[in-house]
Design goal:
single chain, mainly beta, Immunoglobulin-like, 2 domains, 8-stranded antiparallel beta barrel, 4-stranded antiparallel sheet, 45% strand
Amino acid sequence: MAKYFKIAFVCSFILIVYGGCKPVPPLPTVSITSDVVNNVVTFTLKTDNSSAYRWRFGDGDSAIVYSSNPIRHAYPEDGTTYSVSLLVLGSGGQTSASTTVTIPVMSQIDKLTGGTAYPNGKGWRISSSAGVSIAAPDSDLTIISNYATGVFKKIGLISAPTDQYIFFSNGNYTISPQGGGILAGLNYCIFNNLANVQPHAADSVGLTYATPYKPPKGLKFALNSEKNLSILATTDGITSKTINYKNVTTLSFTPGGFVGLMDFMNECIVQSLTPSNMTIGLFFSDAQPQSQQVGKSTKVFIMTLENVK
């Protein structure tokens, strides 16, 4: 009897010790492949035993996602190689993986429109992290004054940086007034009898927010390289003269089109352009509506626009 008891005890002990232990979950496994179209990269994962993914894209951006579905990321600079790292988490622990992606040198039009990477157009808006400068409408665009980040909030035009300007690779163009209106010249609105929001600050630099605003349909744009641009400018509101800008890049629009600021002129100078930022010079007139010089440039707003991600 004792013999059978010992056997039963040993068997029970084995069952408790070994049968009661749960199997250890395996570590996650992962491999990364990437598809590069202009500055947009689609990362695809092949993974097992994973539930969360912590990405570091190599440009300062990061993301935590809970799906292994392909993830798309737009990089800020072309002609640059980025180091990408990924931490994969699962019930069995964590595994890391890394890869590099090289963004090819892009044409100016692809930087602006995104090309085939943006079939629905590429949106831009006034940058919320950059200030605004005012320049004289001379051939050197001499800076007169600078306004720090937050100038639109300061003068009560907080909706201006939310409105979007969308460029398509086929030359089509749309304006999307997210705030119901659009940044505009105050005297332009007075001259054209357009309803607008009165700026809060006395020093509104001649700007207002035209609302309501309904953009025209069928707008087109052109990105013009090495252009000789001539404008009429006035400094005293009495006389005007022609100013020439040689070999500049400009954005021009069909009637009713503009970017950043609705005023008398529908062409602006592009000072710099990357896939993520664009600095432009916007011609502006604050000549009095009753003046013979109305519509002729009195200053140039230098603004930075950012890609809407």
